[in-house]
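2024-03-11 09:14:02 DEBUG pipeline.ingest accepted 1 chain
2024-03-11 09:14:02 DEBUG pipeline.ingest length=184
2024-03-11 09:14:03 DEBUG pipeline.predict start
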Amino acid sequence: MASIEHVPCRFPENKPLADDLGMWWALHVKPNREWRMANYLMHKGISYYLPIYEQKKKCGYPPREKIMSRPLFRGYICFALHKDRHNELFASHDFVRIIEVPNQEQFVRELQSVAIALEVGRDLFVRSGLAKGKKVIVRNGPFKGLEGVVSRHSKKGQIAISVEMFNRTVIINLDEFTDLDVMD
């Protein structure tokens, strides 16, 4: 079994998420099994996406900051595989169920926005539920192309990216020079 340092968050690594459009599914994995399932999928040659973020945590005395890699959507991993080949997954006992993704285009758009946010690497946090508000797209800066929501409850300069499939919202901070366009 490979260590987590050798398990990429996207496999194949340079393949755009949209290339697997129409074949995306979600795996609800057993607790703390996201890395093992990603490793299993990688060795089977199955395309997947496991969004990973760096969590800062203070521990010890005197308090030191420790940075740990964590799955963004705990308990889930996204994979792309034709339904006829799902039997290849059953040799792994690390998941609970396979969840169908009904709206593939929306799911891929949401994951692409999450991927942009993670690439930039700014502080972000995840909360339960979906954000409501005006849909916007970022027109410039490091988050260019990111789609999200600006809600009345968020602070100025924040944008929320909701992933409906997981009922989770990722909140990121924008700088004051970021231009947003309201979407229809």
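2024-03-11 09:14:41 DEBUG pipeline.report Helices lie at 34-44, 104-120.
2024-03-11 09:14:41 DEBUG pipeline.predict end
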